[in-house]
Amino acid sequence: MSDFKIAPSILSADFARLGEEVDNVLKSGADIVHFDVMDNHYVPNLTIGPLVCDALRKHGVTAEIDVHLMVKPVDRIIPDFAKAGASYITFHPEGSEHVDRTLQMIRELGCKSGLVFNPATPLSCLKYVMDKVDMILLMSVNPGFGGQSFIPATLDKLREARKLIDDSGYDIRLEIDGGVKVDNIREIAEAGADTFVAGSAIFGAKGANDANDYDTVVAAMRAELAKA
After folding, report:
1. What is the largest CA-CA distance in the chain?
2. Alpha-carbon gap, residue 144 to 146, rounded angstroms
3. 209 partner at 20 to 30 Å CA-CA among 87, 103, 148, 192?
4. In the predicted model, is pLDDT for residue 1 greater than 60?
5. Topology of the domain covering 5-226
6. Taking residues 119-144, what's their average pLDDT?
7. pTM of the model
8. Is 177 designated active site?
């Protein structure tokens, strides 16, 4: 697959300059803005809500915004993110009482829908809802904090998810989130991923005079993906 997309996680950006940070990372060649929403309930951290998504749109961001809801329950907040300009809205099956209904709601609101699977969460519920899913996101760390190391067992899970997608015949993206770096992105791609969330690996990249160096790291990721 050559349609690889890089999705920097703004969780690792400088929030005092968020609009500028997103502009710069997109100029460096990134494709999608990954937007991590945590509620200090489903996961032990608290981040950002629909107002920030709306602010990025008003700032002029036109790239796809991929909203990853690490919240429970999810249904109440989904319409707010749809209104705020989300392109994708993905959620964890544990966060919804009725996964099928939640997926339908996301699509009815005009967004692309997705399911997110934690490292120890099986993919079993997917087989009943493949017709309603535009994105499958596999967590390669436990959700809640940036900067964690990639969990190697996720590679086998990626192969399993890739086979499910290929066998289904549906156009579904396969995203990976957690510990993605220049030195492992090729192996992750070869296991089946086509969309790569990277937070600290991109926003933490520094060049001369401690300046942000997003161009170099995104280019290095692209070079590795070209070999996959």
Report:
1. 52
2. 7
3. 148
4. no
5. TIM Barrel (3.20.20)
6. 96
7. 0.96
8. yes
